[in-house]
Amino acid sequence: MYTQKLHAGAKFPDIKATLTSGEEVSLSSKREECDWKMVVVYRGKHCPICTKYLNALEDFKGRLLEQNIDLIAVSADSKSQLDAHLDDLSISFPIAYGLTEDDMKALGLYISEPRSEKETDHNFAEPALFIINGEGRIQICEIANAPFVRPDLEQLVSGLAFIRDPENSYPVRGTRAY
């Protein structure tokens, strides 16, 4: 099996999803006061590890905003699945549903089939995280094929503070891969 991965420094594709309010949004669009964006792809309501990670991410939202980094989470769940998932989430950042398989492929994500109907009723993306810089390019990406691989949030947010500090002139890393 072959998957086409996005590369560091590449333009983030225009992927749209739907917020709980019903509003369609581009994953890369940023609130007015932010010039960077963090996009967190999670597996869906069926994944307790995702629920734990999203709840932990809430504790870092303020630090991300201090660095002018907007935040959104997205999955392939349906509206009803996301609505049910909200009962287990304690988050205030935007969360969206409706990621399609074509979207997952455009993002270079690993896609899994449910193990049973108890898990979920659709194919879903394995976890991923993208940091999109002010030029709309991928500054950082983490694409996993299992729910157990996630960036440590303290290390990530501290690293972003280092990258965002103009004194450091930190470039996009890993661009020699292509």
TrEMBL record:
It holds the Pfam family AhpC-TSA. Gene3D superfamilies: Glutaredoxin (3.40.30.10). Residues 6-165 form the Thioredoxin domain. PROSITE patterns: THIOREDOXIN_2. Signal peptide: none annotated. InterPro entries: AhpC/TSA, Thioredoxin-like_sf, Thioredoxin_domain. One of its GO terms (molecular function) is peroxidase activity. CDD domains: PRX_like2. Keywords: Oxidoreductase, Peroxidase. This is AhpC/TSA family protein. It comes from Alteromonas australica. The lineage of its organism: Bacteria, Pseudomonadati, Pseudomonadota, Gammaproteobacteria, Alteromonadales.
